[in-house]
Amino acid sequence: MAGHSQFKNIMHRKGAQDAKRAKLFAKLAREITVAGKTGMPDPKQNPRLRNAIINARHENMPNDKINKALQKANSNEDSTQYDEIRYEGVASNGVFFIIETLTDNKNRTASEIRTILNKNGGMLGETGSASFNFDKIGSIKYNSKNISKDKFFDFSIDKNALDVVEENTYIISTCLPENFGKFRDELEIEFGDPEKSELIWQAKNPLQLNPDIEKKILSLIELLEENDDVQSVYSNVNLNASMKE
Fold first, then answer.
1. Is pLDDT of 135 > 70?
2. Alpha helices in 79-200 (DSSP H)
C-alpha cells in the first residue's frame, strides 16, 4: 500500500508539473503571436518577436509549438485582439507588485486579479502606486559556463551596461530599456544567442522579510501567475533561492 500511495503521489506531482508547463507554453505562445501581429513577421526585424522566441526556447518549448504560434500571428484565422495592461498591487509590510498581462477581456482580468489580491492580503492599486519602487531595465542572460566571464563583463561595460551580475550558473547584463534592442544585438554578435532576453521591473530596494511572510508572498505570486492572462509578476521582495524553486 505504501508503494502504491507513493506512486500516486509521484503521478499527482507529475500531473501538476505537466499542467503548469502547458500553461507556461500557452503564455509564451500568446506573446509570440502578439509580437508577430504588432511588428514585422521576421524575428530579425522585430526585436519583441525575437525576444519571445528566445525566451520560449529557454523554457524548452517545442519548435512545433513555436512555429504554430508564428503561423497564427501571420494568418487571418485568429482575430482575437489582446491588450497589454499593467496592474499594480500593494500588500502589507511594504510589499508591492507589478503584474503584466495580455488580455482579450480587460474587465475579466481586472476582476480576477483584484479577487486574488483581496483574498491573500493585498489590494489592487492605482497606476503608479507600486511602479515608483521599480526600475524598468533590459536583462540579457547567458550561461556563464559557455562564455568567458571576464570578456563578457568588459564587453558589457564598454557597451554602457547598467550592471553585470552572476546568478547561480548565469551571468546577466542589464541596460536602459531604450537601448535594449541594440544592446542585445551587440551581445548576440559577440557571444551568440542568450539564454533569456527580456524587459523586466527591478526593485530599487528589495525587502528581506521573515520566512512566514515570505511564504505568503510567494504563494500570492504563484496564484497570480496561474491566471491565464498574467504574463509576468514582479515584487520588491528578495525571495530566498530555496523558496523560488
1. yes
2. 106-119, 149-158, 180-191
Q: In this predicted model, what pLDDT tens digit does every residue of 180-221 receive, in sequence order?
A: 999 999 999 999 999 999 999 999 999 999 999 999 999 999
**SS3 label, residue 83:** strand
Run of H or E including 170: strand 170-175
Predicted structure pTM score: 0.84
**Phi, psi (degrees; rounded to nearest 5) at 9:** -65, -40
Which structural domains are found in the chain, ordered by start? 2-74 (1.10.10.200), 83-132+205-244 (3.30.70.980), 133-203 (3.30.70.980)
State the cell numbers at 186.
551587440
Distance between CA atoms of residues 30 and 20, nearest Å? 15
CB of 91 within 8 A of CB of 121? yes
Type and span of the H or E element at 164? strand 163-167
